[in-house]
Amino acid sequence: MAKHNFMYDLVVIGAGSGGVRAARISAGHGAKVALIEPQMHHGPPYFSALGGTCVNVGCVPKKLMVFGSHMLHDMHYAKHYGWNVPEGITHNWTTLMANKDKEISRLNGIYGNMLKNAGVELMEGWGSLVDANTVAIKSDRAGDKPDKTITGNKILLAPGGWPFIPDLPGKELCITSNEAFYLKDCPKKIVIVGGGYIAVEFACIFKGYGADVTQLYRGPMFLRGFDDDIRRHLYNEMKEGLGIDVRLETNPAKVEKQPDGSLLLTTEKGDTIATDIVMFATGRKANTAHLGLDKVGVELNPDGAIKVDEYSKSNIDSIYAVGDVTNRINLTPVALHEGHCFADTLFGGKDRRPNHEHVAAAVFSQPPISGVGLTQEQAAKKHKKVAVYRSSFRPMLHTMTGANTRALMKILVDMETDKVIGVHMNGPDAAEIVQGIAIAVKMGATKADFDATIGIHPSSAEEFVTMRTASYYLVDGEKLDKLP
Fold first, then answer.
1. Which tens digits make up the pLDDT trace of 174-190?
2. Could you give the angle at the alpha carbon of 401 between the alpha carbons of 398 and 406, nearest 5°?
3. Do 258 and 135 touch, CB atoms closer than 8 A?
4. pLDDT number for residue 2
5. Fewer beta carbons under 10 A from the terminal one: N or C of the chain?
């Protein structure tokens, strides 16, 4: 490491995906690293802990709850395959929460041991900037006096994001995804406000556990940024297949507590919805409060996220930032990638800039959606001629269950180069399937490469290598059934 007079080569604020990866890899390169995190174990009051949002109140517990929410459907389907499933099966929410908490605690311990074994010095408390090389550590986030201060040649900010509830009467009666992971009982009725990943996933989760679910979204269609065709398909699956009351172009106006303890939500249209819980999943904001950015002059983007360059460096030479606090692509694997690139560049002697192109994504709805590359809307704007291959079918499992569900798959091809520029799916195992295809898209695979690949039969995935005829074309942004 370069010679300097600071206590550490690197001080990291935030032990989430990006911060942990950066700390561990930097230490592996020989750096002396301190990592600051307010809470070592998950749960209130701070919810997040070692491992960050993903491990504690995000991807991991969410996916565990998704698994469980499928099981009642699976038992219903089992009857059609000859299994004598007893009537009146019930669910024990307390057992689910206890087992989920046990697993998250196990992961907290794994992260702690992993950091310790890497030689990272872990410190509990709230970190904030004093100057460009000094960090204060406080037990009280808003307190004036720090418990201690440390210095570092480089400082990495990785405090993540925090759920946002807009100002409206009764907001204090509402919960976010943080509290949803610690509910003592499954609500009989719940209203979920929002149209992103979290809102859609929790709508499906609570419906799977038997709740009466209403989802409100202010826009014309949820999951903005995903392929429009896929979004519409999922909307129909959730409404018709699951029975979720999805209300688009609907905003809440106020939430009131009723004499019996229940809640009454009133929309801007004047409609009222009686419910047990109102959950807001209306986005997350960069978690920069009390971080001391103004003291040092760290520049922010208009959305409040930390502004960084292609190497994740802020406008202050010694201060970097990765993950959701930069609001580039707010996904766990992206934060991991950014943290690893940071460590390799600063301490590993490598020149690594994060690459945010062709990042695959998934929403673990029911059924799940996943995609990589350009959406149809993006492709129409970027490329002169695009061939669209589209297939919709009933998944094989449901040819015997009679379930009212269909899968949808799409391939977008740039006709000038034959490159596959987008792949999208809504159907069982979408994330597992698209993850593999993302490798091909990242490598620049052509439609001819897809066509030359022999499928695995019988599988839904083989559809991606058996679509031979374009369903329609996009020419100068215009949709055509046939080429002129």
1. 999 999 999 999 999 99
2. 30
3. no
4. 64
5. C
Do the beta carbons of residue 312 and residue 338 sit within 8 Å? Answer: yes
Measure Cα distances from 434 to 282, 290, 314, 390, 423 in Å.
27, 40, 34, 15, 7
160-to-10, 53, 117, 339, 367 alpha-carbon distances in Å: 18, 8, 24, 12, 28
H or E, element range at 120: none
Tokens standing for residue 95: 């057992």
Of 29, 70, 340, 457, catalytic: 457
DSSP 8-state code for residue 323 = G
> Is the pLDDT reported for residue 374 higher than 90?
yes
- The angle that helices 93-118 and 17-28 make with each other, rounded to 10 degrees, is 30
* Residue 262 exposed, middle or buried by CB count within 10 Å (0-12, 13-18, 19+): middle
Q: Look at the block and give the residue holding tokens 């019988």.
A: 458
Distance (Å, rounded) from C-alpha 352 to C-alpha 139? Answer: 35
pLDDT tens profile 5-50: 999 999 999 999 999 999 999 999 999 999 999 999 999 999 999 9
Measured at the CA of 131, the angle between CA 127 and CA 133, to 5 degrees, comes to 80
119-138 pLDDT per residue, tens = 999 999 999 999 999 999 99
Q: What is the pLDDT of residues 330-358, one digit of tens each?
A: 999 999 999 999 999 999 999 999 999 99
Both tokens assigned to 364: 């673990």
Amino acid type, 263: L
% helix, strand, coil for the chain, step of 5 = 35, 25, 40
| Cβ pair 96, 210 in contact under 8 A | no
Q: What's residue 143's pLDDT?
A: 82
Task: Return the structure tokens found at 13.
Answer: 């604020």
Active site residue 457: yes
Please provide residue 390's backbone torsions phi and psi, each rounded to the nearest 5 degrees: -135, 135
Query: What are the distances in angstroms from CA 301 to CA 114, 136, 210, 325?
Result: 34, 24, 42, 11
- What is the residue-averaged pLDDT of the chain? 97
Please give the Cα distance from 135 to 157 (Å, whole number). 11
The span from the CA of 192 to the CA of 339, in Å, is 33
Question: Alpha-carbon distance 228 to 240, whole Å?
Answer: 18
Q: Which residues contact 113 (CB under 8 A, 6 or more apart)?
A: none
Q: How many whole angstroms separate alpha carbon 292 and alpha carbon 143? A: 12
